[in-house]
Each structure stands twice: as structure tokens, then as C-alpha cells.
Design brief:
alpha+beta; five-stranded antiparallel sheet; 4 helices; 17% helix; PAS-like_dom_sf
Length: 148
Amino acid sequence: MPYFMCPNCKLRRSIVSGAESLGEEPDHTRPPCFNCACDQTFEMRNDYFPADATAFVVIDSTDTIKVAGSELEAFAGLSSADVVGGNLYEKLALSAEQALADVREHDARRLEQELTMRNADGVEVTVWADFFPSPDMSGDILVAVTPV
């Protein structure tokens, strides 16, 4: 049964189509969040539960930020308006090059990567980062960053 997490409000829900029980391929279509209407929900495994302070950022295959969750402003001082449409490395200075390369090459998640990023004041802070590739083959990656 697929679970979908909203990168904006972190609502987690499951979608049951019944197809899986009939031996059909699961539907990886991302439903919009019914809580905040974000259209970039992400399919997650049922073993991932983010911390309260975790911020989600969705990037595309060119590392352009598509969605930034509200927790990013809480711990880094960066609002969604500050970062959406910008490059992940330019806006957050997240030291994620190797982790993202591994996720793209192996199409597998990377968890608990200790990295640095830059907050709104220009100060480098240490974060734990988790990376999740999109199962719909869009090239999108969900990046979950948690302050240390």
C-alpha cells in the first residue's frame, strides 16, 4: 500500500486502489494533498517518519527547487518564496553533490547524511539529510533536512 507525504505540510496518508491485491502494478500517480492542495506529494516507504523540525524540499532533475516546506523557514529563515525556482546549491548551499549523484545513479534513497547548508544569515549549519527518489520516474527528489 503506497504512502504519500506532503512536502509542504508533512501530512502522511495512504492510498488504496485495490489494484495491488489483484496482482496489478501499483499506481504511482501522485495525488494532491487534501490538507494544503500541494501537488507535489511524494510516495514514501512506510518506515519513514520525519522529525517535527524536518523541512522538505523537492527538486527536479536539474536541482531546481520545486517545493519548500514551511519548516525550512523555522530553522533556516528561508521562506518558500525565497527558494522555489532557485538552484538547490545556490539557495541552500547544501553540500549534497555526492548523495544526489548516488540517488540518481542507483534510484535508491540515502538516509542520515550529515551535511552542511547555509541559513538566511549566511551561516553554515550542520543538518541531517535524507534523499528520496520519486518512483514515478519524473527525476524529482525529495530532500528532507533536519537541524542537528
